Amino acid sequence: MSTPSPVPPRGTGIPTPPVAFDRAAGELGRRFAERPLPAGLLARLQGACNTVATDDDTCTEAARDWWPLSVTWALAGTAPSRAAAVAQPRSAAEVAAVLTVCHHARVPVTVAAGRSGVCGASIPVFGGVVLDLTAMAGIEAYDDTSLLVDVAPGTFGDHFEAALRQKHGATSGHWPQSMALSTVGGWLACRSAGQYSTRYGKIEDMVTGLQVALANGTLVRTGGRAPRAATGPDLTQLFVGSEGTLGVITSARLRVHPLPLAERRGAWGFAKFEDGLEACRHILRRGATPAVLRLYDPTESGRSFGFPDHCVLVALDEGAPTQIDGGWLVVEDACGRAEPLGEGPAQRWLAHRNQVADLGQLAAAGIVADTVEIASSWSALTGIYHDALRGVQELPGTLAVSAHQSHAYRDGACLYFTFAGRPDPAAAEAYYCSAWDAVVGATLERGGALSHHHGIGINRGRHMASALEGTLPMLASIKAALDPHGVLNPGKLGLDSPWGPPPWP
Ligand SMILES: Cc1cc2nc3c(=O)[nH]c(=O)nc-3n(C[C@H](O)[C@H](O)[C@H](O)COP(=O)(O)OP(=O)(O)OC[C@H]3O[C@@H](n4cnc5c(N)ncnc54)[C@H](O)[C@@H]3O)c2cc1C
Predict the structure, then answer these.
(1) What is the pLDDT of residue 257?
(2) How far apart (Å, rounded) are the C-alpha atoms in residues 243 and 310?
(3) I want to staple 408 with a disulfide (CB 3.0 to 4.6 A). Which of 64, 168, 413, 434 is the partner?
(4) CATH of domain 262-352
(5) What is the pLDDT of residue 133?
(6) DSSP category for residue 8
(7) Residue 391 parent element (H or E)
(8) Is residue 414 lining ligand 1, measured as CB closer than 6 Å?
């Protein structure tokens, strides 16, 4: 048992671009067409929101995120898009006023916050206004008796966690790898999952209520008054994962936890990936919930931990010592036949857990790479793992494909694939799509989920009809009811829009 790991230092509290553009914004090509604002709209926007920018730099930067494919575009002198204007509201009232203007003028509004999305969700593919929420930041209220916090949507994860720890002796328990790149509103909009999710749950388990600005500018509150309510369907959850297409989250009420008192770490080496998956399944099945339970296949065990002949399982738990003890007995028992590897791999994981890949360096070397996270029941997981690996390996140009299990449940788990290839440069985008199709095809074929936590954005839109198995029209009807002019983040979630179908691939 040791004391909990120190919290990494805070970042800048502003969006971090994945790579710098190699030329001035005005000289970049645009992958998705720009559209000028209708006459008179800029003045109305300026009346609605104090800070509105129209310069090339701001409008180009605010129109991109961490989608790896768009990094290869950037290195070739092409920006994904350019917003016609960027509005930076400081209050829910300003958000509502901007939405009212755009709704009546039928102009697209795309929310952007940390812009760490990896599927292009915050790229304004049909131009219009980008609503930059990063000026709406900070803790708004704290209820220590009920362990509830009200937080503004543009609060970056590391700033949120630091404020909770320093001022209130609490933790959110939500720790995505992109902690310093992403915001609370972005977590909710994308149904984010943190690295400690087996202990603390995912963002949908943490949220109890929201304030949301609807497309026509109406502000509504959902939930938030009690730990649970049987008052019809849960409308809070309607907005969780809606990626800015159904409303703009202007405040969130989240559950928090007392700071953990102790931590325990361990690692084991399994001969086969399947054996490690079986151990994870048994741990969850027997009711243990170690905060972190990550199993790496041989390729990743070699690359990340120097154990190419093992499948490394890293486990870490935190909380009260007695709480940890019981669960840890279950973990040790399930790993009984594996080789104990001590604390080294867990320490290595902790030291690197918030490091991000240098996408620019890979892309500059002609390497097309990305990660694909999916989820499925335990029964289907091994089949998906092998089919997906085989599918990507068979593609000409593939250099490597691997996976780890990163989030486990009693009924299944998340597999996180990484692929890298050096295809013929003229076929780079075709290779990228084929690699994605191989993993997604293997997943959907066996009944798995299209995404576990990165969401849909532009990149996965083409698979939404198959993934939702006939319920995409239901989602379209909800969208039409809440956003009748279709102005909120058009071109995403695989939905059609007044400007046409999603414009990629
Ligand atoms: C290196 C790296 C590691 C990552 N690791 C993880 C991880 O461990 N777990 C994980 O879940 N994700 C991870 N991600 C993905 C990404 O960080 C998450 O999707 C995150 O939730 C996005 O938040 P953001 O503030 O950056 O949102 P943005 O990228 O700015 O926006 C994402 C989407 O949310 C919408 N949106 C944002 N704010 C609001 C709001 N207030 N109201 C309505 N819609 C809104 C946008 O319109 C867009 O559709 C990672 C990304 C990177 C680059």
Answers:
(1) 97
(2) 38
(3) 413
(4) 3.30.70.3450
(5) 98
(6) P
(7) helix 378-393
(8) no
Give the model's pLDDT for residue 149: 98
Residues in the chain where the model's pLDDT stays below 50: none
- Domain segments of the chain: what residues? 25-135, 139-258, 262-352, 359-459
Task: Out of 111, 174, 371, give the residue to mutate to test ligand 1, the one with the largest number of ligand atoms within 8 Å of its CB.
Answer: 111
Per-residue confidence (pLDDT) for residue 121, from 0 to 100: 98
What is d(CA 71, CA 22) in angstroms, rounded to the nearest whole number? Answer: 12
Q: How many residues does the chain have?
A: 505
If you write DSSP's letter for every residue of 411-461 in order, what string do you get?
Answer: SEEEEEEEEEE---GGGHHHHHHHHHHHHHHHHHHTT-BS-SSS--TTTTG
**Cβ-Cβ contacts under 8 Å for 254 (sequence gap 6 or more):** 148, 149, 151, 172, 184, 206, 207, 208
**Which atom of ligand 1 lies at the shortest distance from residue 122's CA?**
48
pLDDT confidence of residue 358: 82
DSSP state of 128: S
Parallel, antiparallel, or unpaired for β 129-132 and 109-112? Answer: parallel
45/58 Cα distance (integer angstroms): 16
What pLDDT does 317 receive?
A: 97
Buried b (16+ CB within 10 A) or exposed e, 333-358: ebbeebeebeeebbebbbeebbeeee
Tell me whether strands 129-132 and 85-87 are parallel, antiparallel or unpaired. parallel
Which numeric CATH code is attached to 139-258? 3.30.465.10
- Cα 330 to ligand 1 centre (Å): 34
pTM above 0.90, yes or no: yes
Report the pLDDT value the prediction gives residue 9, as an integer from 0 to 100. 75
Q: CA–CA separation, 502 vs 197, rounded Å?
A: 32
User: Which CATH number is 359-459 given?
Assistant: 3.30.300.330
CATH 3.40.50.620 fits 25-135, yes or no: no
